[in-house]
Specification:
Layout (H helix, E strand, L loop, with lengths): L1 E7 L2 E10 L4 H14 L4 E12 L1 H16 L3 E5 L3 H10 L6 E3 L2 H7 L1
Parallel strand pairs: 2-3, 3-4, 4-5
Antiparallel strand pairs: 1-2
Helix pairs in contact: 1-2
């Protein structure tokens, strides 16, 4: 799993690339939490356009970041999930609590 961070105004865009599974979820948690804490972030956009696979550990990583940001009064959303990842989010019911946007630009405007 490769992570790239971009600041857009007061939002942190996290571009995830590769497999978000039990092998990478802990590193993803630590690195995103570090950026949230270090830069005092309260808006996070997770760009899933380059994620090729995700399992339940990935769902846990996303939910954990959502809780962390929500506890600070902030917002977290998902952007550009591919068909397979989108299906996982739908089946897990994540879209009931986490907003999904078709593009990062749309997410930046709405978050």
């Amino acid at each position: 799993m490769y992570l790239k961070f971009e600041k857009h105004g007061n939002a942190l865009i996290v571009i995830l690339s590769g497999e978000l599974d039990h092998n990478s979820a802990e590193e993803v948690r630590v690195r995103i939490d570090d950026r949230i804490d270090r830069d005092n972030i309260d808006k996070v956009i997770l760009n899933f356009s380059e994620v090729t696979f995700m399992d339940s550990s990935g769902i846990g990583a996303v939910l954990g970041r959502y809780k962390k940001i929500s506890n600070k009064g902030g917002k977290l959303c998902i952007a550009e999930p591919n068909k397979n990842v989108n299906r996982i989010f739908e089946l897990a019911g994540l879209y009931k609590i986490i907003k999904n946007y078709n593009t990062v630009d749309e997410a930046v405007r709405c978050i």
